[in-house]
Every structure is written in C-alpha cells, then in structure tokens.
Amino acid sequence: MKTINCFIPYEEVAQVEQTIQNLKKSPLVDTIYLISTSELPSVEGCEVIVVKSLKSTDAIRKIAERASTEYTLIYTKHTTLQWVNYSIERMVAIANDTSAVMAYADHFNMADGNLTEAPVIGYQLGALRDDFDFGSVLLYRSSALKEAVNRMNVDYDFAGLYDLRLKVSQKGELVHINEYLYYEVENDNRKSGEKIFDYVDPKNRAVQIEMEQACTQHLKDIGGYLKPEFKSIEFSDDSFEFEASVIIPCKNRVKTIENAIVSALNQKTKVPYNVIVVDDNSEDGTVEIIKKYTDNPKLIYIAQDKSYHAIGGNWNAAFHHPKCGKFAIQLDSDDMYYDENTVQKFIDAFYEQNCAMVVGTYMMTNFDMEMIPPGIIDHKEWTPDNGRNNALRINGLGAPRGFYTPLLREINFPTTKYGEDYAVGLRISREYQIGRIYDVIYYCRRWDDNSDASLDIVKMNGHNTYKDRIRTWELQARIKMNM
What we know:
The protein has about 475 residues and is α/β, with parallel strands linked by helices. It has helices spanning about 15-25, 55-65, 85-100, 140-150, 160-170, 190-195, 205-220, 255-265, 285-290, 310-320, 340-355, 385-390, 405-410, 420-430, 455-480, and strands spanning about 5-10, 30-35, 45-50, 70-75, 80-85, 100-110, 115-120, 135-140, 175-185, 245-250, 275-280, 300-305, 325-330, 335, 355-365, 370-375, 400-405, 435-445. α14 (about 420-430) runs parallel beside α15 (about 455-480).
C-alpha cells in the first residue's frame, strides 16, 4: 500500500534524478513532487510545485494541499538522497507504532569523499532552536501537518518550516529514530566554532526576526510566554566593600591569561573594584603568570582544590568570596576588554536600566586581536519587550555578562563546563530585566584552543542536549508560573 508522498527540492535534473530513483525503490512511495522557485521542464514521474522558497509558509501550504497519503516526506537538501535498505519502511513502521506526528533519524554524512556517522539528538519541550538538527529527512503524519497548516496565520518567507515543526509539536511527539537510515551529502564543512555564530550574523537579521515571531507565538500557544513585566531592584545592599569585581575563571590558559589580567587591572572606574582570578588546577604555567600580579591590591587569587568545579563552580567560588563586589563582571581567560572603560559602563548600565544582569557587545577577533567574520556581535535580537522569550530560541545571550551579586548568591551557577552562563541568564530573565550595552566593550578571541572551536559530533550533541534541557526546565517553570 502506497502511504507516502515525497517532496524534494529541485536545483537541476542531475541532482534529483538519483534521489527520485532511490525513492521509487520503496513500494510505500506514491507521488514525488519537485519543489522549485521557478517553472521547470517536466521530469518524468514527478509533479512540480513552484514556491517562494522551501522554508516559506507558501511552500508548506502547497505541500499540505497535496498531502493525500498517510505520511508526507520532506527532504530539505539539494543533494542526492540515498537510503539504507528498507529504511523508508522502517521509518513508517516506527511512526505507526509510536503515533508520531513527525519522525526523523540518524544518518551518514558524505563530505569531501569521507563517510561519517551523523547522529542527531532527541526532541524535547525546550528544543526550540530554529537550527535544531533533524537531519534532512522529515517524515510527517499528514493529518498532523494539515492540522498545523490550518492554524498558520502568518506568511513567512524563511520561518515556514520552523513554524510547522513548532505547531506539530504541540499536538504530538517528534520521534527520534536512533538508527542510521540514509546517506546525505554535507556541503557545510566549517568547524563547529564557526557555525555557532550564524544566528547573530547581520546578514541573517531578516531570518531571525521571522524565527522570533514564530517562536513567540508558539510560547503563547503553550502557556510559556512572559509579558514584559519585571521585578524592580533597589541595589540597596551597602555591605559590599567593592562596587564591582571582574571575574576571570581559568584553566590552562598560559598563552592568554596575562592579557586578560592586565586588561582587567587597567580599568578606570569612579568607584572601588577588584579582579578575582579563579584557577582550576592549571598545569601549563598559568599559575606562575597569575602570581606575577598577586602583589597588586586589586587582584584576588583563588586556587581551587582537586574536586570537580568546572567553569560554573569557579564562578561560584568567585562571587561567594567575601571580597566580591556588588556586581560580578565576566572576563574569559582568553579574551580582553575593549578599553579601560568597560567596568564603569557596566556599573552605569545596572543603575540606569534597573536590571539584574547586563549583556554587552563584543568584536570577534583571531588570536592576534584582528577582527574576523561576523565582526561585531551586538545581539539586537534581545529587545526589552521580548528578550526573555526569544532567549529560549537562541543558544546564548552574548558577552560580556555582568550580574547583580546578591541575586547570583541565591541562584548559583550550575557546576558545568558549558552552558552555565546561559542557564543563569534564563533564570534571571524569568523575573528580572536584562540590560544591554550596545557599544563594543569586549574582544572575543576565536582560536584553536577555545572550548568550542572544533567539537566532534558527539560533544556537539552533548552540548546541544544540555542547552535544550536547560530550556525545558526553564519553560516548565514559566508555564507553571503562568497557571
């Protein structure tokens, strides 16, 4: 019995011919549709659909109109799709058994002639990233797809496929099949550390505006949206000896720690501040460099014991220190402040904007402090009215970050190596406004020793799963708060 209509993007005849042949090998496949942004010559055995773009609402509506079988398969890449034997049947069987509204699977990547495994991760409530990697094969239950399309009341140029996924997820389960079922060609061979900034690239701004709109509506639909109503902060705690502390957690940063320390110690402020360096058992000469500056009365050196701390634990040690200032301001051990005014700009922003956290603007540089693409990262997607909702869609809140210390001492950082600052930012934004500084105040170095410069797929999946889990917990708390 034929149970699948297939929709594949068209670029040229040679590109689709093999994919069409591979699909037709399955007895489950009924009609194959070619999706194109212009009129095409006829391709034997296929129907052509002309759309604005594959990811537009226009395309999704036209797919839904033709979804006449039980399942609708959407292929999202312009390269040849090849199947492991009987994998189409396997996807349908699992979708049937689980009543999935959408199924997706692990697969193999072919890049530069090399075949590698490309496992993906499970979907969860907080998996709201518009760049969530499902792979290129999406098997939708047609009834769920049609129901979702009936609720689409905004015509997106870029966010149509994202909007479909969000609306479908409201009605059922998106099932991850952790089996390698097909082969796809991967054309984006950049390192992980280069891909993670795509969402803040200025040329993608129009895309991001649409993605935010779709995600915000989804949050309203599921009860997780928060209105722009915030708790006020009095900043009345006068028990702090210092107004601010620069926090530098580090481990094995012998090449960069001196730059960071000098940058922090050279700040000019109207009020007393200090610098707290927390070393987590460095073994490469980092400690010796730190000790060169311990005679400076501004510098406090904390040497961690041998137990597990990670970046989050190092932050906890710093802001719980009795000499920590009223505001704790981030400086990563391989970065530098833009000039001597950064700390004072943070202090001013806290009072002027009455916020519990402040996020600045940074410039991406190489190791030699030369600007590299995408250049200046100002996170304009963070708006006063909708920032804390949009924060559930994106993978970070920007840098550098400053925090109101009394609140940090209530929340604490999670003891993790990754995502610790994002977790705290989400938690703060649940109740308090996060302020912004749009001047460049920070140099963010990208080099091979960055913690996320070039991660393998397993580590990337681990990081993404954790951030999705952070979002799930936060979203659950917000839904509960709205009840």
